[in-house]
Design goal:
Blueprint (H helix, E strand, L loop, with lengths): L15 E4 L4 E2 L5 E14 L2 E14 L2 E2 L4 E8 L10
Antiparallel strand pairs: 1-3, 2-6, 3-4, 4-5, 4-6
Length: 86
């Protein structure tokens, strides 16, 4: 396994992120993600990704689905700082 390093600001339970498709795995299109728990920091293509349990919905902050679902997700560590909305 390759060296990943550490991410300086991990997501925290209760935080909400608006993520573009390239900043999460696996899905299509933008999503809103509400962090429930942070499980691990893992390598993916030599980049650090957070494995989290989260509630998510498709869309953007101003226009999104009212249906939230629970899932285990992978979030790109480098994409989180700019994506946090609360």
């Amino acid at each position: 396994m390759s060296e990943v390093g550490t991410a300086s600001d991990p997501p925290r339970p209760g935080e909400v992120y608006a993520l573009a498709e390239e900043n999460y795995r696996y899905g299509v299109g933008p999503v809103l993600v509400h962090i429930v728990s942070v499980n691990a920091l893992l390598p993916y293509h030599d980049e650090p990704w957070w494995q989290v349990t989260a509630d998510f919905t498709t869309g953007v902050p101003d226009r999104h689905s009212p249906q939230w679902r629970s899932a285990e997700m992978y979030l790109r560590a480098d994409g989180l700082a700019a994506a946090r909305i609360r």
